[in-house]
Request: fold
Amino acid sequence: MVFTIQGSNDAPTLVSLWRNHTLFEQGYQMSGEARSTIELQTGDVDAGDTVSYDTTGWTQVDATHFTKAGQFGSATLDITANTIDYRLDDTAQPTQSMWQGDQWEDRFRVSVRDAAGLTSSWTEFKFPIIGANDAPTLTVGAASATLVESGAAGAGVASSTVALTRADVDLIDTTSYLTTGWTAVSGSTTRFTRAGTYGTATLDTA
Reply:
């Protein structure tokens, strides 16, 4: 008795072997970690079948490299080295808006096909990103007037105001004034004074 068995085409496979780094945003007194690589492994159980990458949705750089932008950085697929190399963009607004310990990830989908054109299901590769604290900023506006000493020529100009703008790129962070060295004005929680060489300044934190 003879049983005839006819083979059929099996779909190729694509898996991740390892990822070498977790990404960290660059922040105040933190250099961060801006690069991470995932090693890929392609396969096909059919003996003698060959596997190639389906680069749909990726932008070709050269014969073996393809790139794709994510939310926080960009990835490069190397179809010869079987790797996805990710670079975190610390200047991007979504990256800058992360706060200390905030956790996000960029995801990239890749599939492979065999010689007959059968493709694997899409495999999603994730790059975890941990946020860092960014230093707040203080912007000083133009003075409302140039101060002029009073004298024989006239009464002069004795007051001038500078507008201050404080900010923090971290999305949910808040800022406040550091009033060390200033003297609180009696009866006020928002006004502080400090003596200078030629006059006195008043800081209004409201």
Q: What stands out?
A: The radius of gyration is 30 Å. Residues 9 and 102 are 45 Å apart (CA to CA). The chain is about 0% helix and 40% strand. The chain has a mean pLDDT of 93.
